[in-house]
Amino acid sequence: xxxxxxxxxxxxxxxxxxxxxxxxxxxxxxxxxxxxxxxxxxxxxxxxxxxxxxxxxxxxxxxxxxxxxxxxxxxxxxxxxxxxxxxxxxxxxxxxxxxxxxxxxxxxxxxxxxxxxxxxxxxxxxxxxxxxxxxxx
Length: 137
Description:
Elements: H1 3-15, E1 20-27, E2 39-45, E3 50-54, E4 63-72, E5 75-82, H2 92-107, E6 110-113, H3 116-124, H4 128-131, E7 134-136
């Protein structure tokens, strides 16, 4: 199955459950081959205005989050990123940032980077498709 078809399948499955509109699976390469980081699913939970990764290895309801508000239609204020202390420095926040930025590009909306981590992510990845969608930085 191609990556594009797999991504569409995940997206369609996610749309049918509990208001979650997008889900993509990322395979992470971690130092030492830690299997806990091998596949992570980033979900866009629109009702809660957040991108999230479930972390069942910590606890049943543990999550990494990137939260936003929509101050006006077509603009997301990406204001907070949070990864549990036990899983920091493993690239999890980077996955959340990548998914949020991809969503902004794919839906052709604008973004405000209120979160300092997301400002750093943008500075490390100043792609033109990101730059043209930033309102404040």
